[in-house]
Amino acid sequence: ERNLYRRFALSAASALVVPSDVLERIALDTWKQPRARVHRIGNGIATALYAQRPDPKAIPGFVRNERETVIGSVAGLRAVKDLPALVRAAGGLSGRFRLVIVGEGPERAAIEQAALAMGIDDRVVLPGFLDRPYRFMGLFDMLALSSRSEQAPISVIEAMAAGLPVVSPPVGDVAQMVSAENRPFITEHHGEVRLRDAMQALAGDKALRERVGSANRAKAVAEFDEGVMIARYAALYAGAAGRPGCLG
Q1: What's the confidence (pLDDT) of residue 132?
Q2: Which residues of 153-169 are buried (b: 16+ CB within 10 A; e: fewer)?
């Protein structure tokens, strides 16, 4: 049904907007859309909110301990996110850490079982779904993904806006989204050992985390602020309406 709708809708559309490089390639190569019709406009957020001091009580059941490295992940608890792999990777870390996985979904039991099997169930926090992530993102020391597939994850933008480094397998647009300073922590291949090693390098070096996080914050403000996104959509709609000089 989606394919049928797409076939009719795209034939009449003035433009096609995609939020990621992955979808842009699909639009051009698979859907055979003309280059001039396809526009990539990245998702945007209110980056200023993430510069605020986080709420220390925003995550139920979690109290930050400055002697621990806090690894955060924000995702629906679905199989494609492969969060048990993240738990296993964290289980191989040396030093004190806490893994906080914010989200809800059918994989919760599998994540809990992985934590028990690794003997780190006392260091894994599963608070469920939480809204307004700007309230808690700054409580983390890094954001970690373990997904098998992504496009342009909003959680990566949110972490960048909060000044965090990001650890991830090479999925979707993540390597292009993060700053150049962060790219060494986007692993070349999938695998728990590679994920563990990337997290370990950041966990043991606060100055490195701050340097990478600062670069991510600057890039988020410059490229992923909602003002940038809105201006690009406004220009596109104005052009489609025959009023290219109107942005309001």
Answers
A1: 97
A2: bebbbbbbbbbbbbbbb
Taking 50 as the pLDDT cut, the residues of the chain under it are 247-248
Which neighbouring-strand residues pair with 65? none
Helices (H), the chain: 2-12, 21-29, 83-91, 108-118, 154-161, 174-177, 192-203, 206-223, 226-240
- One-letter amino acid at 160 equals M
Token couple for 18: 């995609």
Which CATH number applies to 47-222?
3.40.50.2000
pTM: 0.90
**Tell me, what's the pLDDT at 239?**
85
Domain range list for the chain: 2-45+225-240, 47-222
Residue type, 162: A
Number of Cβ within 10 Å of residue 236's Cβ equals: 16
DSSP secondary structure string, 162-222?
A: TT--EEB-S-TTHHHHS-GGGGGGB-SS--HHHHHHHHHHHHT-HHHHHHHHHHHHHHHHH
Contact predicate 94/118, CB 8 Å: no
